[in-house]
Amino acid sequence: MPLPDSHPLLSADTANSPLIRAYRGQRGDRLPIWFMRQAGRSLPEYRELRVGNAMLDACLTPELASEITLQPVRRHAVDAAIFFSDIVIPVKLAGVGVEIVPGRGPVIEHPIRTAADVAALRPLDPAALAPIREAVAATVAQLGSTPLIGFAGAPFTLASYLVEGGPSKDQIRARTLVYSDPHTWAALLNWCADVTGEFLRAQVEAGASAAQLFDSWVGSLSEANYVRRVAPHSKRALDHLRGYDVPKVHFGVGSGEVLRAMHSIGADAMGVDWRIPLDEADRRLGGGVPLQGNIDPALLAAPWSVLESHVRDVVDRGRAAPAHVVNLGHGVPPETDPDVLTRIVELVHSLG
Ligand code: 1CP
């Protein structure tokens, strides 16, 4: 039976989309834009669907995950969907007790802190990823030429939650473990790299056209520590995509000091937070790297005239890079007026 035209294996549409071309360093007529955390609490249609569904259950129910992924694409006409899931999903699927506590974030039932805790971690059974594959395939079939970005948490950010037991201000317990027990640290990061790498690969195999690795909390590390104790594991996570021709994007918050090192693990494009302007990020990367970012999320609630000139400035500075995917410097705050996001998309598309 022939596959529908929108099937990713038959369609070259997403390969020629503004997003994928930009990740490959090509500029076209349209400046692509999407928003980190575009699916989520800023959308009334999301809040409605989530009633009675715990966050991680919603992620593992293919029809819900797919519908939530599509909502912001329909509403804002962004140039990409990002798969609705969470960085802790592969950890949960590997058998670790984790919940997303509303208003707080991922909370780990038994934090992982000792060599014995790490030794007890089980590998991820690929069969457990079936709901992820199903949700991605259903989503891609509906997206047509709009690419789906698959994503995963980088080993350091995942390990931070596992060691701390939940969200933390500066990941101090995790950073202590790096020094107090480097062997346990390395074993934990290898485990994280493999579960997160498998999660990412499942999304790509099921039809995602790009892959973003989020090392959200990398900004708490020194460059030397990052290079020695973290980067090799992040590379190991991305190595799970070997053989798949999808662009790889790497993003962290507060990553100014480690941008170059983060790029060197095998990323094609770099996400930049709001702390450094894109022309400065381009300079730090030595030029030649496609950039993604970096509208300050704090300005989403500012008067439109202020926000508009900020967006124009971001676009202007992004011209220093070979290509630019407009985004925020971090996720959409839940209280954001979604109409503001739609208006930014229109503005960016008018700037070309
Ligand atoms: O009740 C709710 O609606 C839960 C809020 C929520 C949502 C919508 C959480 C809890 N996760 C998500 C979805 C999610 N998580 C996406 C969806 C796709 C999209 O962007 O539209 C993505 C990409 C993530 C990834 C994620 N989860 C990251 C990396 C990106 C980032 O924001 O830095 C991190 C660090 C997490 C952990 C997490 N999950 C949820 C929260 C509130 C947090 C952060 C907690 C903390 O501050 O430590």
From TrEMBL:
Tell me where it resides.
Cytoplasm
Residues in Uroporphyrinogen decarboxylase (URO-D) domain copies: 32-41, 149-165
Q: Name one GO cellular component term.
A: cytosol
Which reactions fall under this protein's catalytic activity? uroporphyrinogen III + 4 H(+) = coproporphyrinogen III + 4 CO2
Instruction: Return one GO MF term.
Output: uroporphyrinogen decarboxylase activity
In terms of PROSITE patterns, this protein maps to:
UROD_1, UROD_2
Q: Which UniProt keywords apply?
A: Cytoplasm, Decarboxylase, Lyase, Porphyrin biosynthesis
Q: What is its main location?
A: cytoplasm
Instruction: Look up the record and name the pathway of this protein.
Output: Porphyrin-containing compound metabolism; protoporphyrin-IX biosynthesis; coproporphyrinogen-III from 5-aminolevulinate: step 4/4
Q: Which InterPro entries match?
A: UROD/MetE-like_sf, Uroporphyrinogen_deCO2ase_HemE, Uroporphyrinogen_deCOase
EC annotation from Swiss-Prot or TrEMBL: 4.1.1.37
Q: Does the keyword Lyase apply?
A: yes
A Gene Ontology BP annotation from the UniProt entry? protoporphyrinogen IX biosynthetic process
Do you know which SUPFAM superfamilies this protein is assigned to? UROD/MetE-like
Q: Which residues bind substrate?
A: R37, Q38, A39, G40, R41, D86, Y161, S216, H330
PANTHER family assigned: METHYLTETRAHYDROFOLATE:HOMOCYSTEINE METHYLTRANSFERASE RELATED (PTHR21091), UROPORPHYRINOGEN DECARBOXYLASE (PTHR21091:SF169)
State the function annotated in the UniProt record: Catalyzes the decarboxylation of four acetate groups of uroporphyrinogen-III to yield coproporphyrinogen-III.
Q: What does the sequence similarity comment in the record state about its family?
A: Belongs to the uroporphyrinogen decarboxylase family.
Query: Mind telling me which HAMAP family this protein's record contains?
Result: URO_D
Record NCBIfam families: hemE
- What quaternary arrangement does the UniProt entry report? Homodimer.
Instruction: From the Swiss-Prot or TrEMBL record, give the protein name.
Output: Uroporphyrinogen decarboxylase
Tell me which species this is from. Answer: Galbitalea soli
Its lineage reads: Bacteria, Bacillati, Actinomycetota, Actinomycetes, Micrococcales
